[in-house]
Design goal:
By secondary structure, this protein is an alpha/beta fold. It has 10 helices and 10 strands. The model has no long low-confidence stretch (mean pLDDT 95). The protein binds adenosine-5'-triphosphate (ATP) and magnesium ion (MG).
Length: 235
């Protein structure tokens, strides 16, 4: 059985419909990447899953229907969302940002887990008592990812994690993400314009154009596809 089974007949903002007929599934621990140009509807797809858009259709997750639930209830059901632009709290310290990801757990558990994340990422530990606004872009993205994992999610939605990061930092970040997903069995849904690395960690991929799915297949199929190579791999 799929962990996530998405069937959006329409979704959008107020009276504006952005997405039509978006259907896909993600198995337990599976990794799917969504490619698409600016304005294609990638962010809207993630926001629809998280309960932030008007939608007609179904979001089945772990055997439950999430459509119509408020964003905090979607999060509590086991879906963590790392928004485009990271969404770390600049005024809060690095540790406080981590704790903000653990609000569904006991304070004691969350504190212990925050310590484990800081041990794992020394660059964050060095700055644990300082405002997150002082971190580099790559460190903020790492913090946003660690914060998402603080809720022990079954699925993490990542909206363009590579945006604004240098290639070397992006490579490290994807390798970290890959490791976390594998070791914890966490499913990933990654939206990216930078396709090379995202396809590298995913099993399945799809392309969205103007709010509709225009291409889908295994990640390696899409990597070999001429249109994808031209549009998203700069070949
Ligand atoms: N709050 C909103 N109200 C109305 N329309 C919106 C809103 N947010 C986004 N849109 C529109 O929805 C369409 C899809 O936007 P979306 O942000 O999902 O695209 P995207 O694929 O994530 O693009 P990008 O790569 O630039 O992040 C765009 O035409 C955009 O202008
Ligand atoms: Mg977007």
């Amino acid at each position: 059985m799929s962990l996530l089974s998405l069937d959006i007949s329409a979704a959008g903002y107020g009276p504006v419909t952005i997405l039509r007929d978006i259907q896909f599934e993600i198995p337990e621990g599976g990794r799917l990447v969504i490619l698409g140009a600016n304005g294609a509807g990638k962010t809207t797809t993630l926001r629809t899953i998280s309960g932030m858009c008007r939608m007609a259709g179904s979001v089945r997750f772990d055997g439950r229907e999430l459509a119509g639930l408020a964003p905090h209830r979607v999060a509590a059901s086991g879906i963590a969302h790392v928004p485009q632009g990271r969404g770390t709290f600049g005024d809060l310290t690095v540790r406080e940002n981590l704790l903000a990801g653990g609000t569904t757990r006991s304070r004691r558990d969350a504190m212990a887990d925050a310590d484990r994340w800081l041990e794992r990422f020394p660059r964050l530990a060095e700055r644990s008592s300082r405002p997150a606004s002082g971190l580099s872009g790559g460190e903020q993205q790492l913090l946003a990812i660690a914060r998402a994992f603080m809720s022990n999610p079954r699925l993490v939605l990542l909206d363009e994690p590579s945006l604004g990061l240098a290639p070397k930092i992006t490579t490290e970040l994807f390798s970290t993400l890959d490791g976390l997903s594998r070791e914890r069995g966490t499913a990933l849904l990654v939206v990216e314009q930078n396709a090379q690395l995202a396809l590298g960690i995913a099993e399945e991929a799809l392309v969205i154009e103007s709010g509709e799915i225009t291409l889908r297949g295994t990640a390696s199929d899409l990597r070999d596809n001429d249109d994808v190579r031209r549009a998203y791999l700069g070949v």
